[in-house]
Amino acid sequence: MTENMDLQDQITKLSEEYLGTVRAYRHHLHMHPELSFEEYKTSAYIQETLERHGMEVTSGIAGTGLMVRLVGKGAGKVVALRADMDALPIQETNEVSYRSMNDGVMHACGHDVHSSSLMGAALILNQLKEKWTGEVRIIFQPGEERLPGGASLMIAEGVLTNPDVDVILGQHVFPELPSGMVGFKPGMYMASADEIYLKVKGKGGHGAMPHLNIDPVLISAHVLTALQQVVSRRAKATTPSVLSFGSIHGNGSTNVIPDEVKIEGTFRTFDEAWRDEAHRHIEQIAKGTAQSMGGDCEVKILKGYPYLMNHETLTARCTASAERYLGKEHVVELPLRMTAEDFAYYSHEVPACFYRLGTAGKNGQFKDSVHTSTFDIDEDALITGMGLMAFLATELLK
Questions:
Q1: Is 144 a catalytic residue?
Q2: What domains, with CATH codes, occur in the chain?
Q3: Residues 78-132: pLDDT tens digits?
Q4: Catalytic residue chosen out of the listed positions 39, 112, 135, 144
Q5: pTM of this prediction?
Q6: What is the rounded CA–CA span in Å between residue 177 and residue 165?
Q7: Which of 34, 86, 135, 380 is labelled catalytic?
């Protein structure tokens, strides 16, 4: 048996043995969720757990972020593994023993899975560190769900340097795949995401006397219609783009025309130059349309996460390694997504691979989407979550 196969077998065996331990980690994290940049107890729990297993943890990075440097039997490459820790402002409705104990807060996006899986991978790699060479940098990150994104802050505080990280990996729960399966997408994978805030201003008054008013509700309708040309007529047909508005609020009444209307939306794409150009179009069209009707429009655009780029060569290598570890039939190629992830910041700094971890039950359970009050996983996925991440790290250190 080759040394490589021996190490693979050991990782597989340990991931199965650690399932109960990692499930307990996940249950604790799930029961005690914390919102973005407020992950104090979560961070303390992860730190105490890893230190109990003999690992040296650096804390207080970007507030609640953690980092562990696992060093193998000699100098070599540096592979970083990242998990996010924050939860969402959602009231959980699952009737399970590990249900959230924090009112209105829930791990509805699987960050408890990401963190517990990475804790398991750290245990495996730490136990086998005489079998590999180089450094595995373990990163537990705050604030993925909220701008400016914990990834950008951790990068600014040096988690990718001293010594420089060669590659970084991240994984995310995926209820569209059964547990035991994973998905990869080389190249562009997830979109940039910007928040659009419009305030359409007019002159309010009685609904029965519109000639005395400047109606911001009517202006808003024209603004929203005109903005559709940003994607349909200004974007290249080959560049995926989305401009959507999900909130419009006028605070008027059946017979009251308000003074202003607030509109909120999102813009997403895969081209940074076009992204900046689109922002200019949005502002010009919104302001111009409102002014042409006697009103005005304030435009505020919060630039969010960049698009996520999976390094082609690295992702191909990870895909091949995953096929060896799980079997080719358990690895699929994923389509492009217009959702966003702050892991994208890492992908613009070093070669990165962000892949999906199947979490649905093989019997049809656990298929509810992330960001819902009923999201949950088949916990057999934790075996794959910790084992594959540990195996990919050892493969990439070669």
A1: yes
A2: 3-189+306-396 (3.40.630.10), 194-302 (3.30.70.360)
A3: 999 999 999 999 999 999 999 999 999 999 999 999 999 999 999 999 999 999 9
A4: 144
A5: 0.93
A6: 30
A7: 86
